[in-house]
Amino acid sequence: MLNLVKKLLQWNSSMELESPEELVLEQVKLTGKVILFNDEWHTFDEVINQIIRATGCSLSRAEQLTLEVHHSGFAEVFQGEFQECLRVSAVLEEIDLRTEVKM
Questions:
Q1: Strands, DSSP E only, in the chain?
Q2: Contacts of residue 32, Cβ cutoff 8 Å, sequence gap at least 6
Q3: Is residue 35 in some structural domain?
Q4: Is the residue at 58 inside a domain?
Q5: Nearest to residue 56, comparing CAs of 74, 34, 32, 71?
Q6: Tens-digit pLDDT profile for residues 30-48
């Protein structure tokens, strides 16, 4: 799988597909997850509101995630396509929350 991802990252979109392997690479979507870490600066309401803005989840889900971050030190707040993970992370970081995007 790692070789497949490496080839995908190296693949130039202007190249024509020449083999079945390259056709498979075109269909692979990179996915990831966003981890949110606890801090001592933000209020629960600030974190809840930012999670909702970033992910579009419900108030109830954002509250659950915020409590998990508070008690565990971190929580996976989003999972999806890698580009969307980068967007979610950027929105969370707008108020200086600390995140990590993992593949």
A1: 31-37, 74-81, 99-102
A2: 79, 80, 81, 82, 85, 101, 102, 103
A3: yes
A4: yes
A5: 34
A6: 999 999 999 999 999 999 9
pLDDT band at 10 (very low <50, low <70, confident <90, very high): low
**Token representation of residue 92:** 């969370």
Is residue 50 one of the residues assigned to a domain?
A: yes
Q: How many domains does the chain have?
A: 1
Domain CATH number, residue 84: 3.30.1390.10
- Pair of tokens at residue 82: 């890698």
Domain range for 55: 30-102
The residue among 39, 63, 52, 33 whose CA lies nearest residue 91 is 52
Count, residues in the chain: 103
Given a contact cutoff of 8 angstroms between Cβ atoms, the answer to whether 81 and 30 are in contact is yes
Q: Cα separation of 103 and 99, whole Å?
A: 13
For residues 82 and 79, what is the distance between their CA atoms, to the nearest angstrom? 8
Other Cβ atoms within 10 Å of 81 Cβ, number: 12
